[in-house]
Amino acid sequence: MPAEGSRGFSGPQYPGRITSSVIIACCVASSGGLIFGYDIGISGGVTSMDSFLSKFFPSVYQLEEQSTSSNQYCKFDSQLLTLFTSSLYLAALVSSSVAATVTRKCGRKWSMFLGGLTFLVGSVINGVAANVLMLILGRVLLGIGVGFTNQSVPLYLSEMAPAKHRGTLNIGFQLMVTIGILVANLINYGTAQIPGGWGWRLSLGLAAVPAFIITIGSLLLPETPNSLVERGKNDQAKRILVKIRGVADVHPEYEEIVAACDEARAIEHPWSNILKSKYRPQLIISSLIPLFQQLTGINVIMFYAPVVFKTLGFGINASLLTAVITGVINVGATVISILLVDRAGRRPLFLWGGIGMFLCQVSVGALIYVQFGVSGAGTVIKKLAAPVLIFICIYVAAFACSWGPLGWLVPSEIFPLEIRSAGQGITVSMNMLSTFAIGQTFLSMLCYMKFGLFYFFAVWVIIMTLFILFFVPETKNVPIEEMMLVWSNHWFWNRYIADEDIIGNRYSNYGT
């Protein structure tokens, strides 16, 4: 049965090419991923610095200093410490619904601007923080910024890119996320060497740099044709479309966007409309893919890599350096995904990535069991640290080729315009909710589940890989406004698509 769903649908190909205008616009917009990635990378390194722990989380610092601790799994178990990391994602969850409305009514670029500006303020507060309350306040503002940029940037990229290059350009967002992580890891490694123990302030405060880039860059961006038509600026939309496609005859694509916007204007309540049966495939997939993305366990590695490596016997400098190594691999594998996504397609990358992550999670779990056993006591076996690092690096590469970029790409390209902002809002909300849950509970889960935590994530990788195999169709090369035909041709989802959803509207010109 899954073979039928994997054939996909190749919709009409509109004239146009990748122009310098669209490349520049997508590169600037993708810089919104820098703030997300920088925060992911910076928090884990900062929370492993002794000077930071002793100032804000003295109980964790004291427990870490007790070399005779009976349980290595529980050295960093502190709900207040994890709240420092995860509070950002709770704020992003709350702000994403507001961001969806701003993105729809004011445009994609203004949502990016608000996100960058809020993140900028939050980074300054974190850099000068004098107590935990200031830290959390700064994190909340960072979270609001992430909620706005993660809502608007993937939509912007999907709407600006030609259909046959949409995957490549959209993954630019994830590439910037990985670059942000790598830069943060490098900065953490450097600031940890600063005498006086104030390097963590520089690490947190430098988040203002990527925030400044997206804040200023968003003001220079053109709005997407889809958003302009949606807000009644048709002439301006057509001029932008001619510019970014590099051809004078954009009439077929322009008429398709206009038709989509006419339908969108008829929808007064997109948040309730998205619950209709014909949108069931998009609703389920956009909810489960971001949930599954976090259940791969990737943010366990990205948030707490230095903490994990420190637990395994690496010193602080070595643990930060290993985080740099995984960051380099993360960037390199994302570049590979960019090269493959519009050639191989989304499904093959999802499936191969799932297999690779599963094997690595099982291997890491086994090695950590050999290292610490069930009790978590005993002497650290340093010779096992290198194999653990190798498998974690392979795992990061598998994720960065698959669930990392595709977890943002696929949800951003499957919604029709009338529910697109609401749909992306659901995607961001689910991503932030699951990220918050994993981030807040990981250290406690490690304490109680021990090495079995990695098997927990491995089981979820099996489940999500099977979900892709049976329920996620191929979407490469399909124009974003023709995506309804993908669902009508799928072996399972076609039961939710009535004939009147296809015939008699703008899809009828292309048949089923």
TrEMBL record:
One of its GO terms (cellular component) is membrane. Pfam families: Sugar_tr. It is a multi-pass membrane protein. GO terms for molecular function: monosaccharide transmembrane transporter activity; symporter activity. SUPFAM superfamilies: MFS general substrate transporter (SSF103473). PROSITE patterns: MFS, SUGAR_TRANSPORT_1, SUGAR_TRANSPORT_2. It is found in: Membrane. The keyword Transport applies. Residues 25-476 form the Major facilitator superfamily (MFS) profile domain. Keywords: Membrane, Sugar transport, Symport, Transmembrane, Transmembrane helix, Transport. The keyword Secreted does not apply. The chain crosses the membrane at residues 21-42, 80-103, 110-130, 169-187, 199-221, 283-304, 316-342, 349-372, 384-410, 422-446, 452-472. Its main location: membrane. It comes from the Eukaryota. InterPro entries: MFS_dom, MFS_STP/MST-like_plant, MFS_sugar_transport-like, MFS_trans_sf, STP/PLT_plant, Sugar/inositol_transpt, Sugar_transporter_CS. Belongs to the major facilitator superfamily. Sugar transporter (TC 2.A.1.1) family. NCBIfam families: SP. This is Major facilitator superfamily (MFS) profile domain-containing protein. The lineage of its organism: Eukaryota, Viridiplantae, Streptophyta, Embryophyta, Tracheophyta.
